[in-house]
Amino acid sequence: MADRRKYVIPGDVVTSGPFRPEQNVILEGNDIISTVVGISEIYDDSVKVIPLTGKYLPKIDDLVIGKVVSHTSLSWELDINSCYIGFLPAMDVFGRDFSTHSDELSSKLKTGDLVAARIANFDRTRDPLITISDRDLGKIDDGVLVKISTSKVPRLIGKKGSMIQMIENGTNAAVTIGQNGWVVVACESAEGLSKAKKAIEMVNEKAHIANLTDLIQDMLNEKDES
Amino acid sequence: MGGRDATMVLLDENGIRCDGRKIDEPRKIVIKAGGLKNADGSAYIEFGDNKILVGVFGPRDVHPKHMSNTDTGILRVRYHMEPFSVGERKRPAPSRREIEISKVIKEALEPAVMLEKFPRTAVDVFIEVLQADGGTRCAALTAASVALADAGIPMRDMVAAIASGKVADTIVLDVNNEEDQAGQADMPIGYMPSLKKITLLQLDGVLTPEEYKKCVDVGVKGCEVVYELQKKALHDKYFGNRSN
Predict the structure, then answer these.
(1) Are A170 and A119 within one domain?
(2) Residue B114's closest chain A neighbor by CA?
(3) A37, A39, A123: which to substitute to probe chain B, counting the most B Cβ within 10 Å?
(4) Are B242 and A7 inside 8 Å of each other by CB?
(5) Which residues neighbour A159 within 8 Å (Cβ) at sequence distance 6 or greater?
């Protein structure tokens, strides 16, 4: 149970005592100090701060949307809206019998293509390794890219995916959310597409409002009638 | 400097300074977080007649590549004064003074930022002084720290800065341009208020050991005032009217 939420900035003492410091906090003496602007949450034995700003930092197993920037003869490089470049080895796409002689990388993914991918491996010594060999992953053929703030991704998903389900049901759109703040919206009708896009942008702007779900629901219904 | 009034009274018998302030009173300070759309973080400060805009980018790729460090991210700071920021046109090329202040501000921010979380990257801080009136390095450091927080760079603490000094044989807080030119000493102080640590301390002038101690105390107290304003700027941007 998360209780005692607090708005904090770097240097603020969140709490003191025998707590385990988790994300975005440091232990200084007996005090637990926030390192970012955000909302602090104190659990039974641990403390963390949910940041309200900042860039995406890759985490293993995150689903991200990437954009192909370039490729070498062995791998693609993907922009994943982070300070690091996503690294997608060719073997991941062509399979084990990939050879530089017979396979041409640009036949599968070209510069500018959007890819739904998973972070396979990332540590501080190397750029994040990306994989698309999984169900639902791979090149995105149609849809519109919407960029939102990384810190608002959990809000867009909502509790157990409630927010995104509501948007999808309300517009018949298929929405792919990357943890890196990039979202792809695909929809057969142009109206549904623009509505879903608007809803996502609304979540991005008004993430802090408490009854956002109702607001979005109203917005989705409103257009149905007209 | 040229047209300085030689008869100007720096401190009158009632303890009022040349611009009407008391000895321990800072100038009017207004800080605003955010404002630049294309920067990852930004801040604007009005520190008396100083007007400074700060933009922060990063963490991002390091160019040139050889500057990058595999153990930690690097911090790069550029302090720059606009040609129109002072009375007589300042040549826009970086001067000896600007290069020094860039370095000093960088070293004052380094203890606060936790760039070891972002190896092989750089965080760039661009400081543009739009209008200068003494104490720009302190104002710039204060604004840079707000901009870094706005960019979401993890920091151990904010860095607040203000200058104290000795004017007409008295220790005063927040030395302005006239007092800097005609005063006896000027001491810019950068301070991390929660950790109670000093990150910047320079001294230009002569002080006795007692005066030195008093000067530091006055400066640290001033930094705490500045810190409250930094806090307010970030709260205003991120939490609006909602309080804890």
Answers:
(1) no
(2) A35
(3) A37
(4) yes
(5) none
Number of domains comprising chain A: 3
- Read off the CATH number of the domain in which A96 is found: 2.40.50.140
Residue where a domain stops, chosen among A92, A124, A140:
A140
Same domain (yes/no): A117, A184: no
Relative orientation angle of helices A212-225 and A190-205, to the nearest 10 degrees: 160
Residue A52: other Cβ atoms inside 10 A:
23
Helices (H), B87-208: 96-109, 136-150, 177-182
Domain extent listing, chain B: 29-237
Q: Which residues of A touch B156 (CB under 8 A)?
A: 10-11, 26, 28, 33, 35
What is chain A's pLDDT, residue by residue, as a tens digit (226 residues)?
445 788 999 999 999 888 999 889 999 889 999 999 998 988 888 998 988 888 898 999 999 999 999 988 888 999 999 989 999 998 888 877 788 788 888 888 889 999 999 999 998 888 999 998 888 898 998 889 999 988 889 889 888 888 999 999 888 889 999 999 999 999 888 888 998 999 999 888 887 777 888 888 888 887 655 4
Residue that finishes a domain, picked among A140, A159, A185: A140
Is residue A101 exposed (0-12), middle (13-18) or buried (19+ Cβ within 10 Å)? Answer: exposed
Measured between beta carbons, which residues in chain B are less than 8 angstroms from residue A33?
A: 156-157, 194
The pair of three-digit structure tokens given for residue B34, joined into one six-digit string: 């955010």
Q: Which residue range forms the structural domain that includes residue A11?
A: 3-51
The CATH architecture annotation of domain B29-237 reads 2-Layer Sandwich (3.30)
Q: Is residue A57 part of a domain?
A: no
Report the predicted TM-score, pTM, of the whole model to 2 decimal places.
0.90
Q: ipTM value of the model?
A: 0.85
